[in-house]
Specification:
Mean pLDDT: 89
Largest sheet: 6 strands, mixed
CATH superfamily: CheA-289, Domain 4
Helix content: 10-25%
CATH topology: OB fold (Dihydrolipoamide Acetyltransferase, E2P)
Number of strands: 11
Strand order of the largest sheet: 8-1-2-11-10-9
Number of domains: 1
Strand content: 35-45%
Order of helices and strands: EEEEEHEEEEEEH
Low-confidence stretches: none
Distance between the termini: 42 Å
Shape: globular
Number of helices: 2
CATH architecture: Beta Barrel
CATH class: Mainly Beta
Length: 149
């Protein structure tokens, strides 16, 4: 059965495949990264690794908000790179039957960064597809911004 880490972003309940999650840490100072894609807040140094911080609010067309001391950062892997996701809180881990997930494209076409929707005992969770968070153009812009920074 698939396992996910369930977290909150504003009033949304989202999930990440547990296999893509490295760890959860407290929020920290984010260094702005000029010329980065809009979804990128900036970069942080975590254990000597400089990682881009992605604001998922941008991916859901929501207003960016200031990072608060109580916020969480999730260190994760997109398949192409390590990233840090800015989120409000982690609710915990959950498992679900693989056939219980509904493909997001059948509900909202064009929402490429959401792989599916699953109903848990305590409500619906949108499952993020980290590999789709940044377009190839965004990846290129991010590389250029990191190289210039």
């Amino acid at each position: 059965m698939p396992q996910i880490m369930v977290f909150r972003l504003d009033d949304l309940r989202l999930g990440l495949s547990l296999s893509s999650v490295e760890r959860v840490v407290r929020s920290a100072w984010v260094e702005p990264l000029p010329a980065a894609p809009r979804a990128i807040v900036g970069v942080v140094d975590i254990g000597g690794r400089v990682l881009p911080v992605i604001d998922l609010r941008h991916c859901f067309a929501r207003a960016r908000r200031r990072i608060e001391p109580g916020d969480c950062f999730v260190l994760a892997h997109t398949g192409r790179r390590g990233v840090v996701l800015q989120l409000d809180a982690v609710d915990g881990l959950a498992t679900y039957e693989a056939d219980a997930a509904v493909q997001a494209g059948s509900i909202v076409p064009g929402l490429t960064h959401v792989a599916g929707v699953v109903k848990l005992d305590d409500g619906l969770v949108l499952i993020e597809d980290l590999g789709q968070l940044l377009s190839l153009d965004d990846e290129r812009l991010l590389e250029e911004a990191l190289d210039a920074g």
